[in-house]
Amino acid sequence: MNFLDGHLYPQNQQPLIITAAPYAPGWIPSDFPKDIPITMEEKVQKAVDCFEAGATVLHRHVREADGKGSKRMSMFNELIAGVRKAVPEIIIQVGGSISFSPEGPDGEAKWLSDDTRHMLAEESANFQSLVNDVRREQALRLIEGQAHSITEVAQLVGFGETSAFSRWFGQQFGVSPSRWKKD
C-alpha cells in the first residue's frame, strides 16, 4: 500500500494530546514514598513535571496530609489554582467522579459518599452549570492561546463534534468560536 498524499508526515498530522494521570487514589504514599506527592507544592511540581514530559491534559486526585484521598473542595481549588499558575497551558481534569464537597464548621468535608453530585444543589449550583463554567473557561483560554484549532478545542473541552461545540459556544458567547479567535 502506498501513501502518496503525505498524510503520515508529522507536519501533516493533528497535534498529539497526551493525558497524564499519575497516582490513582487507590495507591497509598507508602507504596511509592518518593513518587506520590502529599504537600500542595509537591502536587504542583508533579504537574509541572508531567507537562515538561509532554502531557497536555492532567488528571489529578487530591490527597490529605495523611495520604488519603481528599473530598474537601478547598483542596481541589487550591490544587487547580497552583497548577494553573505554574503551567497555564495544561488542561486539568479533577480525579474521577465529582466526589468533593465544601467543608463544614469543623473543616471536614460535609458529604463523605463517593457520589455527591446530587448534593451540589445545597450549594445553589447544579452539576451542568459547573461543567459549563469549566468548559467556558477552558474554551476561552484555549482559543485565545492560538495554539489549537477549533476542532482541537472542541475535543479538549469534551465535545465529540465540532458543530456541537460551535453551537454551544455561540449560545454561551453570542459569537462563533472562529469569530472569537479572529477578534
Question: Can you describe this structure?
Answer:
With 183 residues, the protein is mainly α. 39% of the residues lie in helices and 5% in strands. It contains 6 helices and 3 strands; from the N terminus they run βαβαβαααα. The chain has helices spanning 40-52, 73-86, 127-145, 150-156, 162-173, 177-182; strands spanning 19-20, 57-60, 91-94. Helix 2 (73-86) links the parallel strand 2 and strand 3 (91-94). The longest helix is centred in the C-terminal third of the chain and has 19 residues, at 127-145.
The CATH superfamily of the largest domain bears the name Aldolase class I
Percentage of residues in strands: 5-15%
The CATH class of the largest domain: Alpha Beta
Number of strands: 3
- Taking Cα atoms only, what radius of gyration do you get, to the nearest Å? 19 Å
Concise description?
The chain is mostly helical.
Give structural attributes.
single chain; 183 residues; mainly alpha; TIM Barrel; Arc Repressor Mutant, subunit A; 2 domains; three-stranded parallel β-sheet; 6 helices; 39% helix; 5% strand; globular
Secondary-structure topology with pairs:
Elements: E1 19-20, H1 40-52, E2 57-60, H2 73-86, E3 91-94, H3 127-145, H4 150-156, H5 162-173, H6 177-182
Parallel strand pairs: 1-2, 2-3
Helix pairs in contact: 1-2, 4-5
